Amino acid sequence: MLLIQINSHIKIRSLLRIVLLGKRGAGKSSAGNTLLGKQPFYTAASSQRVTKDWSMSASTVDGHRISVVDTAGWTDLILMNDNTILEIAEWIDQSDPGPHVFLLVIPIGRFIKEETNTVHQILEVFGEEAHKYTMVLFTKGDDLEEMTIEDYLKDTHPDLKKIIEVCGGRYHVFNNRDKENKKQVSDLLEKIKLMAKRNEGRNYTKAMYQKTVDQIEVKWKRERIMNAARAEVEKEINDSAVGSNYETTRSKNTELKPSPDTKGTVSTKE
Ligand SMILES: Nc1nc2c(ncn2[C@@H]2O[C@H](COP(=O)(O)OP(=O)(O)OP(=O)(O)O)[C@@H](O)[C@H]2O)c(=O)[nH]1
Ligand SMILES: [Mg+2]
Predict the structure, then answer these.
(1) Which of 157, 174, 204 is where one domain is finished?
(2) Ligand 1: which residue has its CA nearest to atom 21?
(3) Could you tell me if 144 and 251 lie in one domain?
(4) Alpha carbon 113 to chain centroid distance?
(5) Containing domain of residue 45, as a range?
(6) Looking at the domain assignment, is residue 210 inside a domain?
(7) 84-125 pLDDT, tens per residue?
(8) At what angle do helices 82-94 and 113-126 cross, to 10 degrees?
(9) How far apart are CA 21 and CA 242, in angstroms?
(10) Considering only CA atoms, which of 128, 140, 113, 132 is closest in space to residue 26?
(11) What is the rounded average pLDDT of the residues 226-252?
């Protein structure tokens, strides 16, 4: 046990591997730059996804070697499919042998249902085992103005509170516009190191990811079977509706249109 702790201490001291995740435009690349104290990641105010692929950069911060993987912005349109699964596996590979921490980047502001869906999707993709390696990193801390993050969280959307709870109550806030504020970086590193120590220096692994992918694939398979069954039932209902409409129309036509051999008898009878 002691040996494991010493080893993990050495591991954490040698390189802290960080992966940034979050919705498009959440401030992931900016947060990566703030963390590293340099600008390896391109950032922009855009309604489109700015970062389209992952990239990695490393630096020494407060005497610690850290590597940061910046990832493409999650959008509601990114439906999980085989390509996304492979792309994520690559991000994890980049952080070989696996990240010590996922920073779930969420901008300060109005937290609406759409954000919740994205965050839930991210949490689902990495699976339950990832929760203990995840921390919420709020960006746009300047928007808090006079408020503290604790004040902001007191009145926030219950879904956001739940997300923080899922992440073991871990969160931090960055103002990426304040490049002089080195304390925000040191404080985050301290929180990450504390978390890494609690995890005994272990990191999220590709095997953990594989496990969740297998579960997702089973879920997809089940959904595909259910959808096919549903489509079959709908088709049967439609077919029988068309059939009965046809019958109704046919019988209406039969009532209204006199057959050629009865033609004339209908109107001339009286
Ligand atoms: N005011 C303020 N703006 C910020 C902050 N962090 C990021 N931004 C701005 O938010 C916009 C998006 O930031 P990015 O870092 O490019 O966001 P991203 O999550 O990497 O975006 P994608 O790569 O498209 O997913 C940019 O205009 C940033 O300048 C912050 O702390 N405060
Ligand atoms: Mg980006």
Answers:
(1) 204
(2) 25
(3) no
(4) 13
(5) 2-204
(6) no
(7) 777 787 777 777 788 999 999 999 987 777 778 888 888 888
(8) 70
(9) 50
(10) 140
(11) 76
